[in-house]
Amino acid sequence: MPDEKKTKKEEIPRSVDPASLEVLAECTDLQPIGTSWDRLKKQHPQCGFGLKGLCCRHCSMGPCRVDASKEKLKYGVCGVDSDTVAARHFVRMIAAGAAAHSDHGRGVAETFLAAAKGEAKDYKIKDQQKLYGLAMDFGVEIGDRAVEDIAIEVGEKSLGIFGEQHGPIPFLKRAPLKRQALWKEHNMEPRGVDREIVECMHRTHMGVDQDPENLMMQGNRAALADGWGGSMLATELQDIMFGTPQPILGECNLGVLKDDEVNVVIHGHEPTLSEMVMVVCQSPEMIAKAKAVGAKGINLGGLCCSANEILMRHGVANIGNFLQQELALATGAVDVMTVDVQCIMSSLAQIASCFHTKFITTNYRAKIKGAQHIQFEEHDAENIARQIVQMGIDNYKNRGVTKIPKAKCNMIAGFSHETINYLLGGVYRSSYKPLNENIINGRIRGIAGVVGCNNPKVTHDKDHIALVKELIANNVIVLQTGCSALACAKEGLMLPEAASQFAGPGLAEVCETVGIPPVLHMGSCVDNSRILMAASAVVKEGGLGDDICDLPAVGAAPEWMSEKAISIGQYFVASGVYTLLGTTFPTLGAEGFTDFLFNKHEKLTGGMWGFEPDPMVMARKMIEAMDGKRRALGLDKGKERVLFDMAMRRELDAG
Amino acid sequence: MSKIIASAGIRGAHKIYARVEKKYQELLEKHGPDQEVAFPNTGYYLPIIYGILGVKIEKLADMKQVFARATSLIPPPVKEKNHLPYLAPALDAGMATFFLQEMEEAMKYIENPDIYQLGEDVTDENLWLGAADDVIMRKRGVEFVDGTAPGFAAILGAPPTTEIAVKIALELQEKNLYVFMVADTNGRYMPDQLKEAGVQIGWPTRLVPFGKTVSAAVFAAGFATRAAMSFGGIEPGDFRKILIYNKDRIFAFGMTFGEVTDEWYANGLACVNYGFPIIADTPIPEVLPTGICTYEHVVANIPYDKMVSKAIEVRGLKVNIAKVPVPVSYGPAFEGERVRGDAIYVEAGGPKADTVVEWVTSKAMDEVEDGKIEVVGPELDELEVGTRMGMAIVVEVAGRNMQDDFEPILERQIHHLVNYAKGLMHIGQRDIAWYRFSKDAFDKGFRFKHLGSILHAKYHQEFGGICDKVQVRIYTDQDKVKPILEQARAVYHVRDERVEGMSDEEEPIYYSCTLCQSFAPSHVCVVTPERTGLCGAYSWLDCKAAFEISPTGPNQPIEKGKVIDEFRGQWEGTNKFVNQASRGAVEFYNAYSIMDNPMTSCGCFEAISALAPSCNGIMTVDRDYNGMTPCGMKFTTLAGSVGGGAVTPGFVGHSKTYVNSKKFIRAEGGVKRVVWMPKRLKEELREKFNLRAAEAGMPDLLDRIADETIGTTEEEILPFLTEKEHPALSMDSIM
Known about the structure:
The complex is a heterodimer.
Chain A: H1 3-11, H2 18-26, H3 36-43, H4 48-51, E1 55-56, E2 64-65, H5 82-116, H6 128-138, H7 147-163, H8 177-185, H9 193-203, H10 212-242, E3 248-252, E4 262-268, H11 271-282, H12 284-292, E5 298-303, H13 304-314, E6 318-320, H14 325-330, E7 336-339, H15 348-353, E8 358-361, E9 372-373, H16 381-395, E10 409-413, H17 417-423, H18 426-429, H19 433-440, E11 446-450, H20 462-473, E12 476-480, H21 482-490, H22 497-502, H23 505-514, E13 519-521, H24 528-541, E14 553-557, H25 563-574, E15 578-581, H26 591-605, E16 609-611, H27 615-632, H28 646-650
Parallel strand pairs in A: 4-5, 4-7, 5-6, 7-8, 8-9, 11-12, 11-14, 12-13, 14-15, 15-16
Antiparallel strand pairs in A: 1-2, 3-10
Chain B: H1 2-31, H2 47-53, H3 63-73, H4 87-111, H5 134-146, E1 152-156, H6 162-174, E2 178-182, H7 190-196, E3 207-211, H8 217-230, H9 239-249, E4 253-256, H10 262-273, E5 278-280, E6 298-299, H11 307-315, E7 344-349, E8 356-362, E9 373-376, E10 387-389, E11 391-398, H12 407-419, E12 424-427, E13 434-438, H13 439-443, H14 449-463, E14 469-475, H15 478-501, E15 509-513, E16 525-527, H16 540-549, E17 557-559, E18 563-565, E19 570-571, H17 572-581, E20 607-612, E21 617-622, H18 635-642, E22 651-654, E23 674-676, H19 679-695, H20 701-704, H21 714-723
Helix pairs in contact in B: 1-4, 1-10, 2-8, 3-4, 4-8, 4-10, 6-7, 8-9, 12-14
């Protein structure tokens, strides 16, 4: 990398979040490992071929650097060109992301089935209605069967989705009819989740599929198996077991850690253990134990998406997003941190060892050298949770000096697509109609899904916040999940008061009417499936076209870093949504393939990718895209008020 | 500011809950859980609770579950800072408010059965009418069905002055809307204001005082809820459909005057669930974004002279106002107004004055001068106050599509067309017409010639397809009335013979009638010469004329096609039509049978016939009779079980006059099967019925038929039928 670029990277502030900056200023001695920012600096210059998606190490003839613009590097040893290298790499990212979400889903399905069979006594069916809905999706008979029987069959069918060989996966039926037909036409319907991921790996093996567009057909299919398969299944089963989220007040940022209480921190992505930890933390028995060691109580907090899960359902405090995981430990206030899967930095065990913190891995899939491992077993969930909390209580006395920053912020979370349906009309008139109507009448310009991770290559949280603020100022309602949601929550954008403070007048008026923030927290990163459902609900409500790609709706992940973000983005693109990444894009060195993703893909699915590192420009691109969709729907012109006479009433559809 | 409204409404709902729950405990203690509770004469229990929750409240004990539901619906108060979303919980609190208030009003009937005046009219002692019974609901509901009333205004409180109150009421009447009045503003009641100004109030003039407290708003919503069930055919408990039906088809809105209390807000939120927006005169917060209602939800601070037009715009209602060049207000709302005693300026016809005759006749185009109105004899201002007189009204119509058959149709319109004029009362038709002209109308400038203006204008507006030219002569010169009368009577005779002579067999074309699909979307009538539409309003000739006037309208010709079963009345063409119109639900039907695949029924029928098995016959009851009948159900309960577009063997809805048709349940033996009818219906049908009975060889049949004075159960009437040797008893088994 040229020197001037390197200098520029170093100059950017590490975060816009005052709590994080406060901890970063204090924690200069996490030697030798440091923070992600420190390590990124040491990694410079990063591999230029890798950055652009042009490095292939799929066989031992390589690694090959393939770059069409350099005569010498035009082809890899096997003869592969840059577009195929980038496409193979991109499809493997999708496969990895889809695998992560889907293996999460599989884990949930296994717990669900065990619970249904009575083999995991600590888990219950909390949302029966949703179970019945799922049973209907799966063609499981309801009749007057016992709930457990239905649940067992639903659980078995759920697990079946992973190994299914012929498909298509049942949730595709939830999409608008036109979308279903399009997937069928392009042979894009996923068969089984595992099969699509395996096929991705096969096709990207040395010497198999070497047509970038054909590779992306499989990429799309695997991504759909994630969004409408593994992820959606995870969300559905979690809701059935732990309750479908409803609006709830919570708080977030490092300031939620407490000096005078035992701080138990959960981190990762699955709610199965964190739900139990929460139950245990609230039990009078454990609180008494905490008091016995001199603490005022037990303070449970979370990081990343395990935290989002229990925030959405119970309002449990959220300590922060991806880049704050090391900072949480660096406060010295965490008595025990337990992690499950995904987005857990390798550094945590070492950083924990700089303090008194007990650091525990709990999933056999995700062990970390230096961590203590306590295997989580669903049939003994509560006991294992109690063991972990007990370790925190026992460890409280070992605490040294703590440096907990003050900054924290209230937020309203819990916007499942079901609850949005309720919120727009109450028990008796629930529907998406008010949302549709206010999109049609222009008070709301469009819908943006802003999701994704943090990445130390850009100032922590800055792009999320700048983008979302610009969108809501332009009357775009924003749906969020994951770390992006937490960035905006910390900024106060998930409070109802944010509507009058930051939103444009039309959006603010609608928010005020319903009593919602202009930015809605829809959950963890598997819960992006909720956004798919919300988009489908908007289409079905009518007046905004008959497919997801007709909606004035755009997706973005401005600070993305993980392969899951690519899989999510791809299932949105495959579902008809224009989706932009910030920070970087992993195929930029392959012009032909990038052009396919950024342009030609729209002809295929109505959705395409985009890349824009500047959040303000990204907002502009998103709004322009929404305006384009509005024009296509004829919404750019004002609608006349229709007054009804009797003849018009007679013509209304019956029922 | 929706937040202020939601917060207030939720507070209001909490207060209402506490109040009603306290009353409930009090009554439970006093009367016990088995105490019966009901609104008068309704088959819909407490209609909001029945419609929305599907729960039948018959005893005090039944209310318990509704309190539980209300508890789950009313949310905690809205927090000042960082509040949770409030719109949905506030709408829920609104519905809970209606449930609670409906129980409260029902409990008032237990405590004081006379709290509200029964029937359609107020009295000097009691201005408040309370719950509309099913007779009123059906009668008035039909006006919603046929479009003469597009909706209603539910008014909370009273305008600041009598003058404004009168003006707003009149303006709403002129827009054909019903006006439902509840509650007071600083002790001021709108019905008092109207009464003070001499405005007639009650159902007939569409100015309906429901109750003194805001809780009486449930009577308006109860009316709307019943309309959805009885005309829309929506099942009780199917709350979403009931509410959407109201949003799309009942053009109602709320209007508030003065301070809006927490409890009023709670009621307003309930209205929004029904799609009824609120228009306020005071500067309360507004809710403008659309979604639950068709357009805005709450619009405030509207000046009095704009309130009605604003309400109509916000509700999304197009009112086709009849522009008639007369100096008085004009519209269906004035049809029920009475002119009595001192208010009468001149009276024509009726028992105390000479005959009035009305005659419509068709002429060649060049014989009619359009718009010519002649008063032959003295004008109104040439007559003494209190004059009683005879009169002849001759309307001459010319049109390319005019036929002799349409004359009686146009003629029959005179009754309601002239009655729509405020200050004018009209009863009867043909040679038994009866007019009263009020002093008030006279003072405003109304003259006889305006009768002509009305008929000229309205015939063109409503019957433009058949009337190209209309001229009217009004004879007030007493000597000239008699010759006209004789001429007209001769024509009536010819017409009657013609109608009498028409038969289903001879006519190849029948007509569909889907007029009521604005309210009863799943029903379709097939009208034949010998079977009128079941609402009683549309005969075959009416349909034929309506098709001429509006070729794409609700009356379409049906070729009856091949006869499948002449005796039972089944034709290939009508089968095909009904099959299609019902989307395959009804494959065929027999027009003349009650037992064997009878015709479907909507909710608007005038009368119902039902099997009376022990008497081996049928009973027939009309909707004006609200007592018990031998089949164990009142009309309204029967209507509920027969309506909704289903084929129900043993039950059939029909018009009253169909009883006198030769084809009336011919498959089962016709009029000889009738074992019971309400006394009043017997008298109404007597003349023609006797003809049918004579044809059947039993001229005194009507007197062998039981009525409510004999009994209201089959057991009670059987001895009477046996004694009178009623023919049904010796006929083949009807089953």
